Amino acid sequence: MKTFLAIFVLALTTSAILARQLDRCSLAREFSFRTDAVGNNPDGSTSNGIFQLNDLYWCQPSNGKFSHNKCGSSCEELRQDDITKSLRCAQKILGEQGWSAWSSGNSCNASPPSIDNCF
């Protein structure tokens, strides 16, 4: 659960910056509804789903542009309410590259707070 929450936090920080503050439970509830998130990156790539997985490396975009597609999924699959494929892909990325695969990953030095009492 701690890894899952940490990836959530990274997903938020790699997407558009929000002009509001959320406590840990509000943040956890917010993530519950953003499985379809798409972030547009300066290099023209997109970050997809709840874990903001980049289409240049991890999923195949529907427009047919080149992708390494290391997770073997379409980007649409990573934006579904069923986050099984997204979670497996995020775990693969974490295993291969660690937190540095996400642009804010180097700032994670501690365990994230528990969200067990938020739901």
TrEMBL record:
Keywords: Antimicrobial, Bacteriolytic enzyme, Disulfide bond, Glycosidase, Hydrolase, Signal. PROSITE patterns: GLYCOSYL_HYDROL_F22_1 (PS00128), GLYCOSYL_HYDROL_F22_2 (PS51348). It comes from the Eukaryota. Residues 71-89 form the Glycosyl hydrolases family 22 (GH22) domain. InterPro entries: Glyco_hydro_22 (IPR001916), Glyco_hydro_22_CS (IPR019799), Lysozyme-like_dom_sf (IPR023346). It catalyses: Hydrolysis of (1->4)-beta-linkages between N-acetylmuramic acid and N-acetyl-D-glucosamine residues in a peptidoglycan and between N-acetyl-D-glucosamine residues in chitodextrins. Residues 1-19 form the signal peptide. GO terms for biological process: defense response to bacterium; killing of cells of another organism. Its EC number is 3.2.1.17. The keyword Hydrolase applies. GO terms for molecular function: lysozyme activity. The keyword RNA-binding does not apply. It is an enzyme of class 3 (hydrolase). This is lysozyme. It comes from Drosophila gunungcola.
